[in-house]
Amino acid sequence: SLAQQVAFLEQLEGILGSSHREATESHLAEITRSLQSTFASLPKNARGAVSASSARYAIHRLFVQRHGWHVKGLAPQTGDWSTSAPALGMGDRLPESLRDLIEEELAKDDFHLHEIAVLAATVETLIHGEAVGRLESTYMALYRDVKVSLSRQKALQLIDTYMAFFTAGNNISYYTSARAHQFRERVAKNWPYWNGLQGLVREKQQQVAPGASIFAFSDVLNIIEAAHEQLGSRVAEGNCRDIESRLLDIEEANGTGRVRVRD
């Protein structure tokens, strides 16, 4: 119910502060809309609620579609979506007090749309917060001062480095500057969708800071967050184009659109 949602957000504010609650509430309506079609397709009990395993699947699908995120602990490694882990498998990502709150209020086998949306919005806000720490680590690894603005070339190179480590799931803190640059170049050479990701970053740079030649830390962070918002859909588009291209390569020569079964 709406009253339960408000009560949860008030407790969330007590744990993480008013800024976190405001950030969570700011995209709650959008997340609810994004979850609606998935929620509608899931089996429900007599109360119109879904199971914990279905809620886990819905949040995983949301994060993949919105950002290309595969959150550790959320997506099962065995293909079994049922879970006895805290907070639908996301317990390791949450502060202990928040995990306890979610266990008490939400972690049951009876989830309605608004409960899934609040949980997803809460975790999404926490992950966005992690982006600040990752970006600071990138500045440090590349010997950049977060208080000093960068030229456009250096800012985009730094963002490319950040994105290379983010998409690969590697921690840049363990890399020297030289090795970090080498790793970025290796990802750029070997990842099929790097050009699409790089294009997305440039597109967001023009939207966030059009015509800018100097970029402060906040500008770089805003570009990264804007890119994160569309990363999932852009990679999915790349996958679709790749599949289409492969099918065209093996299409029958007569142009009928048929593909031989043996292919």
Mean pLDDT over the full residue set: 79
| Integer-rounded radius of gyration | 21 Å
Biggest β-sheet: strands ordered side by side in the sheet: 1-2
- Unreliable stretches (pLDDT < 50, length at least 5) are 239-263
What proportion of the residues is helical, as a percent range? Answer: 55-70%
* Largest sheet geometry: 2 strands, antiparallel
Question: What structural category arises from helix and sheet content?
Answer: mainly alpha
Shape: elongated
Q: What's the tally of helices?
A: 10
**Proportion of strand residues:** under 5%
Short overview:
This protein has 263 residues and is mainly α.
List keywords for this structure.
single chain, 263 residues, mainly alpha, 2 strands, 66% helix, elongated, disordered C terminus
Task: Describe the structure in your own words.
The protein has about 260 residues and is mainly alpha-helical. About 65% of the residues lie in helices and about 0% in strands. The chain contains ten helices and two strands; from the N terminus they run ααααααβαααβα. A two-stranded antiparallel sheet has the order 1-2. The longest helix is centred in the last third of the chain and has 34 residues, at about 215-250. Mean pLDDT is about 80; it is low at about 240-263.
